Structure formats: C-alpha cells, structure tokens
Amino acid sequence: MISKMKNLIFIGPPGAGKGTQAEMICKNYGIRQLSTGDILRSNVSKMSPLGISAKSFMDEGKLVPDDLIINMIKEEITKPEYSNGILFDGFPRTIPQAVALDNLMDEFGFKLVRVLLLEVPDAEIISRLSGRRSCRTCNRTFHILHNPPPDPKECDRGVCDIYQREDDKEETILKRLSVYHNQTSPLIEYYENKGKLAHINGLGTLEEVYKLIEKEIE
Ligand code: ADP
Ligand code: ADP
Considering the entire predicted model, what is its pTM? Predict the structure, then answer.
C-alpha cells in the first residue's frame, strides 16, 4: 500500500545535493528515497534489458526516454518498502514524466505534500560534481573536500566501494547542466502553478540546507 500522507519530490540541477539531503530527510521522517539514477545504475551493472537500453543515454549525459522511465516507476512504487511515503529524487525530469506521476498519484490515491526545488548556481555545481565520489554498495555520495568518504569499515550498509561516476567528468557535467536547463526546469512553473513548489537555497552547509527543508515540510 502506498501512503496517502507523505510524498515529496526533489528537483534541482545534477549535483545540487538532492541525494545527500534525501538521506537525512528519509531517516527523520521515516519515508523512503526513490532515486531513478540509482535504480538505473543498478540495472546497468546487472545488464538487464532496461540497463542495456539506458546505458548509452546515461554515459552521454542525456535523459533516458520517458516511456522507459515511466514504466520503471510504475513497477517500483508498488513495492512494500515505499508504504510510509516516497521521496522522489531525480524524477520527474520532464513534463511528460510529471503528468504520468500525477496520474499515478490519482490512481493510487496518494498525496503530494511538497516539491522541493534545490537551487544551486552552475559554477558551484561544477565544483560539487567534479569532487563527488559515490559508493557502489550503499549509493551514498561524498565530496573529496566538503564531505570526505568514510573509512571502508564504517560504511553501515556493507563495505564501501568508492568510485567516481563516469558522467561526473567535466565535459559530461556541462552537458547534463544544459539538459537540466532545457528539459527539467519547465517543471518549476508546472509545480508553481499547482501551488506545491518550495524554493530552497542549496548553497549553505549540509545542516543549513537541511534546516530550510525542514521548515518547508513540517
Ligand atoms: P544526478 O544525481 O547527478 O542528478 P542521477 O543519478 O539522478 O544524476 O541521474 C543519472 C543519469 O540517469 C541521468 O543523467 C540520466 O541519464 C538518467 N536519469 C535519471 N533519472 C532520470 C529520469 N527521471 N529521466 C530520464 N533520465 C534519468
Ligand atoms: P544530487 O543527488 O543532487 O546529484 P549529491 O547529493 O550527490 O547531489 O551531491 C553532489 C556533490 O555535492 C557530492 O559530492 C556531495 O558530497 C556535495 N554536496 C552536497 N551538499 C553539499 C553542500 N551543502 N555543500 C557542499 N557540498 C555538498
């Protein structure tokens, strides 16, 4: 059963800190993060049919086609682990995806509480993404300067396997930023018109940003 109560959406440029904040929000509010990027990367490493279709788009910093993403979401949200509510991270990223999500929410009768727009200027995004390191085991992200990866033994979901994502190289970062501005930013007006959007200044420390988010969802 999907919760009717606590569903949130994160939007914002790649590397704005959505995944980092999602971990704290989910821990404190008892809801579950649904990261389309994490699900896609897991499909790529298993070489599932979805992973095989998605890989070339992801490597080039382009969006995976809407029909593949929408089918993936339909399958995912029926899983029991999302029963207390979902924090959508990285979805929707286009208007057709947002419309599909509205329809699914109507169908399942669940409520959208807030859409959190994490705002970070492009220059800071480049610095955050080029210093980002990710864990293959637990999907957490770190930063070589602002949030260094832990000792492998301290990873609470297994032994950390830290790596730099192929698409976190500068050339692909610029491409992903332009995809965000062209294809994803129209969602800002879409959710503003629905009265759901909260602007969050993503430029502070992890704790400062979290406090701003808390104010919006309490
Ligand atoms: P980031 O955390 O840097 O914003 P993600 O992990 O969310 O990046 O996404 C990585 C890649 O996966 C994207 O560049 C895109 O190719 C693909 N992807 C993730 N979510 C979606 C989506 N909702 N629609 C289309 N493509 C997606
Ligand atoms: P997203 O999920 O939006 O793509 P991440 O949460 O993976 O972004 O964060 C991108 C990078 O920026 C990571 O290296 C992360 O450690 C770092 N980061 C996240 N929040 C902040 C912050 N408030 N200040 C500085 N660096 C941050």
Answer: 0.94
Task: Check if 61 has its Cβ closer than 6 Å to any atom of ligand 2.
Answer: no
The SS3 assignment for 116 reads strand
d(CA 151, CA 213): 29
Closest ligand to residue 167's CA: 1
Q: Can you tell me the distance from the alpha carbon of 106 to that of 100, in angstroms, rounded to the nearest whole number?
A: 10
Could you read off the pLDDT of 55-70 as tens digits, one per residue? Answer: 999 999 999 999 999 9
Q: Ligand 1, closest atom to CA 14?
A: 4
Q: Name the nearest CA neighbour of 161 among 27, 41, 58, 13.
A: 41
Strand pairing report for 112-119 and 7-11: parallel
pLDDT in tens, 93-151: 999 999 999 999 999 888 899 999 999 999 999 999 999 999 988 889 999 998 898 87
Let me know if residue 143 belongs to a domain: no
Residue 88 is assigned to a structural domain of this protein: yes
Q: What's the domain count of the chain?
A: 1
Beta strand extents in 93-154 (DSSP E only): 112-119, 132-135, 141-143
Sign of the four-CA dihedral 113, 43, 49, 183: positive
Residue among 34, 43, 58 to mutate when testing ligand 1 (max atoms within 8 A of CB): 58
Its domain, for residue 192, covers 2-31+84-120+178-217
